[in-house]
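Researcher: For the annotation table, I need structure tokens for Amidohydrolase-related domain-containing protein. Please keep the output clean. Sequence:
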Amino acid sequence: MAHQLTAPVKTIHGVKLATTDPESTWDITIEYHPGSLQGIISSIDPSNSSFSTVSSPSPLALPALVHPHVHLDKAYIHNSPSCSHLLPSTGSFQEALTTTTAAKGSFTKPDLLKRGEWLLADSVASGVTAMRAFVEVDHTVQHTCLDAGITLKQRWHEACNIQLVCFAQDPIFSTEHGDENRRQIEDAIRDHGSDELAVLGTTPYVETSTEASKRNIEWAVDLALQHDRHLDFHLDYNLAHPEEEPAPLVWHVLRTLRARGWTSRTTNKRIMLGHCTRLSLFIKEDWGRLAHEILDNDLPVNFVGLPTSDLYMAAAPNDPGKSNPRGTLPIPSMIKNHSLDAVIGVNNVGNAFTPWGSADPLSLACLGVGVYQAGTVSDAELLYECISTRARAAIGLASSNFDPFPDSKPGVRLKCGDCADLLLLYDVDDTGLMGAGEARARKSVAEVVWDPPARTSRAVVSRGRAKMPALTKGYETTFRYIK
């Protein structure tokens, strides 16, 4: 195991909470279900002053972070020596598809495990305790990426809840390999239960015709219903003018879900629609229609915007004399103006689709302030929800380990009954010393989002067990453990 966790935490002392008096401190008690070491928050009370060793200044305690959409098998391809010849030369989407396909031909399980460990280590150190992770299954890699994903899921289960997606990046109804790609996916879904492989994902836009894209969608909906899995589509990844083809496929997804009776046949499996950059060109009437079709039909549909990838890749570089627009889903507006479920995710790290950015969701929320012109305190809190509580609900994870349904009211404040997944942010100055008098404190969620603190200031609690930063002096005084 590449990470170390403490013994189960019994109490966390002297923390500050979001949306409360910034001078008040609180004690959090964690209880464990009989026969399980997965903790839940049982009480949050004003701090007990008898604990004189509580760290000063007190850390800010927030719900832990979540990756709602990240590619586990394609992370850090650019750091792999075997792929050094595949670095971007044009930066185009087609180049990314071509070079990534070439890289997949050299994937081995040891290579996948190494790069996957890098992604998980970076993510957990950032505060991520749950993720939806894509692993590709097709004629090239067959089940190699899936097998590596299952190994990583088992290795890291104490620190991070990894929800694997059996993912068809390549066509399944066109090209000479379509039938084989489809068979590989069907075999994987049949051979692995939902605890091991919770989600089915496809990429309808890679098919060679609109008809094949629609067949892709219909097949995926049917297969997910048959095997009781969540469903995740990479969809409408273009910026075609409204009068141009292809027309948005989101409408066909919604029609198919209604026609197949998704809501009446399954009540706790969700559908995620990723990228959807074409929707950034929607006008008011389009958004009204979209919200109407989803909400009035009680469809459990979420959207995930992926700004680092979308802004880099949604419009490939072309004629310098022409405009080169960029687009990504307007996530805050979708939530506030249309009551749609929407979140943001990291997507790719260190490959041709996204050669920039990190695995830290806080850096993504910070980027969102500028991308969405979301500069108010409430905007910052919403962006934090989109990488935390909203993201957790979007991938179908309950707020409590023992509650079968997701929390319907995401927020930035910890609550009794929540899964004991927390992010603690301490005041650490540039010398690495805590509480030395020089550190600039982050006293609110807005200050955290506007200027994310370094990872050396973050302690992470996953299911009741803590992961400390490299500089541990002073952190341990916050915790009391079950002996």
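Researcher: And a one-line annotation?
Model: Residues 65-356 form a domain with the TIM Barrel fold (CATH 3.20.20.140).
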